């Protein structure tokens, strides 16, 4: 079962939920759960675990390389590239590697077979374990703009897992391409929000992407329950979105997290809540 944890906005507690679910699953499953940190621009879930990294490799985008012995400067490659990542100017072909999405279209249309691929390194994939949770993350290199290829490499390397295993994905916040890539192979998405007007606004955007467009079943965790108002709950009821849990506004949680202590280590009384979330999601997936 692959469970993605997402949120329409940053700072809602998405990583806290993802790490807590992985730790809870580690205490109840015979097989170690796998936590995949797909928030590649800011992969911080590993900070709450004591990870011993045992693997790592560079990853990136397949960008075109032009053989000028063969090129006739016909311009077909430039015409087909919707990203404007390759341009033909007189007797020059310019490749803008940071704009290239690695789609391969330019190579396909080149009539001279003058285009081959080369890897433009944009990030790394790293994996390890903390003893009870297996962990892997993608890390986008500083200065790189495209998170999707790194997320895609991470997921290709670690999915699918054997039947019966539990995989938790910590996706990036928001509703843009990296989130679509991170949650797209999940059986279920947990949307973490807070009971405020901002939380509701961004929850609606996340539901639009995850439920209405990707058609992935989803449920909601309301974090910092007790602040704000009841509008998020009313929205969930109206949209038939299950509220999987409410995590109270508890100052001790912020204190634990500020010290890098995982929630379930610092406040073990929350363990049952996360085990209940896991069994509720399993029931939803198996329906
Ligand atoms: S399509 Fe091929 S031959 Fe034409 S300009 Fe591009 S690389 Fe050169
Ligand atoms: S691989 Fe795709 S995105 Fe990159 S230059 Fe070629 S056509 Fe453009």
List the helices and strands and how they pair.
Elements: E1 2-6, H1 14-28, E2 34-37, E3 52-66, H2 76-80, E4 86-89, E5 92-95, H3 105-109, E6 115-129, E7 134-140, H4 148-158, E8 167-170, H5 177-183, E9 188-193, H6 197-213, E10 218-225, H7 231-238, E11 243-248, H8 251-258, H9 263-266, H10 271-286
Parallel strand pairs: 1-8, 1-9, 2-7, 2-8, 9-10, 10-11
Antiparallel strand pairs: 3-6, 4-5, 6-7
One iron/sulfur cluster (SF4) binds at residues 66, 71-77, 88, 93, 110, 112, 114-115.
Features:
about 290 residues; alpha/beta; Alpha-Beta Plaits; 11 strands; about 25% strand
Write a structural description.
β4 (86-89) and β5 form a beta hairpin. This protein has a nine-stranded mixed β-sheet with strand order 3-6-7-2-8-1-9-10-11, sandwiched between helices. A two-stranded antiparallel ribbon has the order 4-5. The protein folds into two domains: 2-49 and 130-286, Rossmann fold, CATH 3.40.50; 61-121, Alpha-Beta Plaits (2-Layer Sandwich), CATH 3.30.70.20. The mean pLDDT is 95. It has helices spanning 14-28, 76-80, 105-109, 148-158, 177-183, 197-213, 231-238, 251-258, 263-266, 271-286, and strands at residues 2-6, 34-37, 52-66, 86-89, 92-95, 115-129, 134-140, 167-170, 188-193, 218-225, 243-248. It has ten helices and eleven strands. α1 (14-28) packs across α10 and α4 (148-158) runs parallel beside α5. It is of the alpha/beta class and 287 residues long. The longest helix is centred in the last third of the chain and has 17 residues, at 197-213. The structure holds iron/sulfur cluster (2 copies). The site of one iron/sulfur cluster has 14 residues, from β3 and α3.
């Amino acid at each position: 079962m692959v469970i993605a944890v997402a949120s329409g906005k940053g700072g809602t507690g998405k990583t806290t939920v993802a790490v807590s679910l992985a730790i809870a699953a580690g205490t109840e499953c015979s097989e170690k759960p796998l936590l995949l940190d797909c928030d590649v621009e800011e992969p911080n879930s590993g900070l709450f675990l004591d990870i011993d990294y045992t693997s790592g490799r560079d990853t990136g985008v397949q960008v075109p390389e032009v053989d000028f012995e063969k090129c006739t400067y016909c311009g077909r490659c430039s015409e087909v590239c919707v990203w404007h990542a390759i341009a033909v100017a007189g007797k020059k072909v310019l490749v803008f590697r940071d704009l290239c999405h690695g789609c391969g279209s330019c190579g396909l249309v080149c009539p001279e077979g003058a285009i081959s691929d080369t890897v433009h390194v944009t990030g790394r994939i790293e994996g390890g374990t903390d003893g009870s949770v297996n962990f892997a993350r993608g890390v986008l290199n500083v200065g790189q703009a495209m998170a999707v290829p790194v997320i895609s490499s991470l997921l290709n390397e670690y999915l699918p897992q054997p039947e019966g295993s539990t995989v938790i994905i910590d996706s990036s916040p928001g509703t843009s391409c990296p989130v679509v890539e991170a949650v797209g192979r999940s059986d279920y998405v947990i949307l973490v929000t807070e009971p405020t007007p901002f939380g509701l606004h961004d929850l609606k955007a996340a539901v639009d992407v995850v439920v209405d467009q990707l058609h992935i079943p989803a449920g909601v965790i309301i974090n910092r329950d007790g602040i704000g108002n009841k509008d998020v709950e009313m929205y969930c009821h109206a949209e038939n979105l299950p509220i999987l849990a409410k995590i109270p506004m508890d100052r001790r949680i912020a204190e634990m997290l500020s010290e890098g202590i995982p929630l379930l280590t610092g406040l073990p009384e929350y363990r049952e809540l996360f085990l209940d979330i896991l069994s509720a999601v399993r029931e939803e997936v198996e329906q």
